[in-house]
Amino acid sequence: MTKQYTWVYACILLLVGFTLYVLKINHTAGIDEIITFFKYTRSSSDILLYDAPNNHILHSFLVWLSTSLMGNSLLAIRLPAFTAGIISLALLYRLGTRWLNHYVGLIAMLLMLITISFVSYTLEGRGYTLTILFTILIIENIILGKDSTKSDLRAFFLSLGIILTMPSNVYLIVPIIGWYFIIGWHLKETIYFKKSIPYFLSLILGTAFYIVLVIWALPNGLNESFSVGHKNLKGFIYQTLRMLFVNPSLSIVLFGIFIWGVLTALQKYRQINFFLIAVIIGGAIVFSALQGIVTHKFFFPRNFLYLLPLVCLIGAVGIHRLALFHANLTAISIFAVFIIGLWGIHSTVLNPNVRYILKKIEEYALDNDILFVAPGYYEPVYYHIHVQKELDRDYFMPSSESDRFIIILDMEDTNSMIELHGLDPYISECGEESWGALTVATCNIVNQPYTRDESKCYSSIYPFWQKCFDEDGTLNE
Q1: Which run of H or E residues covers position 346?
Q2: Are 476 and 468 in contact (CB under 8 A)?
Q3: Under a CB-based contact definition with an 8 Å cutoff, are residues 467 and 475 in contact?
Q4: Minimal CB count within 10 Å: which of 136, 158, 320, 321?
């Protein structure tokens, strides 16, 4: 593979990835993306409702824009994340090429393309690929940007953009500020202190923005998900490693490639730009440790996906170094990794639980059943049935003949579900049965749990549905 043709291979690789991703983009709806869609993107005023960390504000704005133009299809909901993911692959190739060489850029692009966490969030309507996109642009601006006002403005808007996507991204911005101070102090050059100013300003402005939004949301109460996180250090480390390195059959290989890349960078590339990556990764570790000590909880590993392009770059450095010693063996190995990685993408089933629940509802539920799906699964099931209209029967709108109340259980038992959601006044004589591998509780109805008012809207005992829905299941705004 000659240097001048690596861009051709990059285009082919991007086209292959794009094709595989497009074939999966209409997979079953996920829990978080549909909660985000219903709660934060149905109107322009909802976008700034920050009562739960589910709202990736900049991404929610883009989803609102795409669904306003294209309707409420899964493609419209997922288009911003999908677009950000595909552009991120191209920009990672550009960063690796401009910073190091064409081969590193191409290999880094390949590694990110086959990482399952990247695949999952490219195909799901969440803000994580937008975070990856901003990370690549920020790193490129630091390493390759010229010393100019334009570069400083770019630094400000990119860092503000990534914070407005998710506030946890300050874990990226703070180490960058720290790196500028360390380098400026070490080299005795004030220019590095000045270069940190745009990041300082975006950090202050972004923090103030979220403080205002949280205060605004306080009168109506904050969602309990603010207090959710990993409580177990082992689980947190394990899940984070899975996020960054797992593709079926390749996790150990990818982790080994990363370690080899680290050793290569230490030996061959003793430059301050690699020190920047080390500070960012080290910052994530230090901040997580401090968070664990103070709160006894950790962020979810997906909050650290901004590290993925950096990990892929380091891994690409390791592979390229190996190729200098064993070119043919390395080429064969890369091809094998590519094929296995593509098979991993092809064989991955996204949101299998929701798909299975829908299948069993279609198979077992009666026309006039009222269904109460375990929280979390309720939203995507509702979306598929009422927004996508994928099933022939209308399950969620009650009729006067309703005589069964079906509770589809998840991790809770029947009594816990009844107590947790205040179902006692409405049902009695519940008995559990199996719908395949799915456990459900079938109960008699004592009082009608749904009411219908004069405006033809339904209100539910389930607390998520505070808004009204028309008879055809569409949101009445």
Answers
A1: helix 327-347
A2: yes
A3: yes
A4: 321
**Helices (H), ranges, 56-148:** 57-70, 74-99, 102-113, 116-122, 128-144
**And the tokens for 111?**
């590694």
Res 196 pLDDT > 80? yes
| Percentages (nearest 5) of helix, strand, coil residues in the chain | 65, 5, 25
Helical segments of 218-248, H only? 233-245
Is 106 exposed, middle or buried, given 0-12, 13-18 or 19+ CB atoms closer than 10 A?
A: buried
Are residues 470 and 389 in contact, defined by beta-carbon separation less than 8 angstroms?
Answer: no
C-alpha torsion sign, points 416, 418, 424, 430: negative
Distance CA 169, CA 211 (A): 15
The size of the chain, in residues, is 477
Residue the block writes with tokens 């010693």:
325
Q: What are phi and psi of 302, to 5 degrees?
A: -65, -20
Which of 69, 70, 45 is closest to 57 using CA atoms? Answer: 45
Contact 307, 280 (CB under 8 A): yes
The helix/strand/coil state of 348 is: coil
Q: How confident is the model at residue 62 (pLDDT cuts 50, 70, 90)?
A: very high
377: helix, strand or coil = coil
What tokens appear for 238 in the block? 């394990």
11 three-state secondary structure: helix
Q: Is 230 helix (H, G, I), strand (E, B) or coil?
A: strand
**Cα 379–Cα 384–Cα 386 angle in degrees, nearest 5:** 90
pLDDT for residue 477 = 45
Q: In whole angstroms, give the CA distance from residue 139 to residue 273.
A: 9
Q: Per-residue DSSP letters for 147-215?
A: SSHHHHHHHHHHHHHHHHH-GGGHHHHHHHHHHHHHHHHHHT-HHHHHHTHHHHHHHHHHHHHHHHHHH
Residue 74 identity (one-letter amino acid): L
Q: What is the pTM of this model?
A: 0.85
Using the CB atoms, write b or e for 349-365: b if 16+ within 10 Å. Answer: ebbebbbbbbebbeebb
179 vs 272: CA distance, rounded Å = 9
CB atoms within 10 A of CB 186: 11
| Contact partners, residue 203, CB within 8 Å, separation at least 6 | 159, 163, 170, 173, 174, 177
